[in-house]
Design brief:
This protein has 234 residues and is α/β, with parallel strands linked by helices. 38% of the residues lie in helices and 19% in strands.
Length: 234
């Protein structure tokens, strides 16, 4: 039995009408509210009007490509936490890394299996909202406080807006403070990828997260040759 999507809204941007028509049909059959566009120039207006819970975005499009659009969305504080899935024919590892570094939460290559796409979508929604009671508890370490229930992060009492991926990253590091996390394990738990994806993706996101957590960004420690940790408070 499939889990009801609870009125989740999905925006699909792809310059190929055949692709958007197929995705729209499949997702509506799953109970999602869907809006599609074949014009990348309309995406910011569509996001503002539709307020999607998730965006599916092609990379290879005329005038504005998906990487550019993803960065534009991530630079807008009103939209930067919306999960983004890249759906593209660019399947090489460097392209995948570039997509993840641009701020995407997942990356699926064409030709794609629609059921896999649906499972990836549901997986992202579960990661965003489906947490255990323990995981919902507020955690505070070194002036940084996260509240998974409200999906908020505060530094010295001031709220900081993070993307969905950045929130998952700080959530894992803080809920498992005192443990050293390898880059490979973070790729698996944050991005749902195996270690064959280049680990510099993790370094890029940690650097951005540290910048957003200033002046407490140094709470995230680098363990040379291994990965990252947030030391447990005594």
């Amino acid at each position: 039995m499939k889990t009801p999507p609870s009125g989740k809204k999905i925006l699909v941007i792809d310059d190929e009408p055949d692709v958007t028509e197929l995705i729209e049909y499949k997702l509506k059959n799953e109970g999602f509210e869907v809006r599609v566009s074949n014009n990348p120039l309309q995406i910011l207006g569509a996001v503002k009007e539709f307020l999607p819970d998730l965006i599916i975005l092609d990379i290879m499009m005329p005038e504005l490509n998906g990487i550019q659009l993803c960065k534009m969305i991530r630079s807008n504080s009103d939209f930067e936490s919306i999960p983004i899935i890249f759906l593209t024919a660019k399947g090489d590892s460097p392209d995948r890394v570039k997509g993840l570094e641009a701020g995407a939460d997942d990356y699926i290559t064409k030709p794609f299996n629609t059921m896999e796409l649906i499972l990836r979508i549901r997986s992202i929604f579960r990661r965003v909202s489906g947490r255990s009671e323990k995981a919902l508890q507020e955690i505070s370490i070194g002036g940084v406080c996260i509240n998974p229930d409200s999906h908020t992060v505060k530094v010295d009492g001031k709220e900081v807006v993070l993307t969905a991926t950045e929130f998952r990253l700080i959530h894992i590091l803080m809920t498992r403070s005192g443990k050293v996390h390898t880059r490979e394990s973070l790729l698996t738990h944050v991005w749902n990828y195996n270690a064959d994806v280049e680990t510099r993706t993790v370094d890029t996101h940690v650097r951005r997260l540290r910048e957003k957590l200033e002046p407490k960004g140094d709470i995230i420690k680098t363990v040379r040759g291994v990965g990252y940790t947030i030391p447990a408070e005594p």
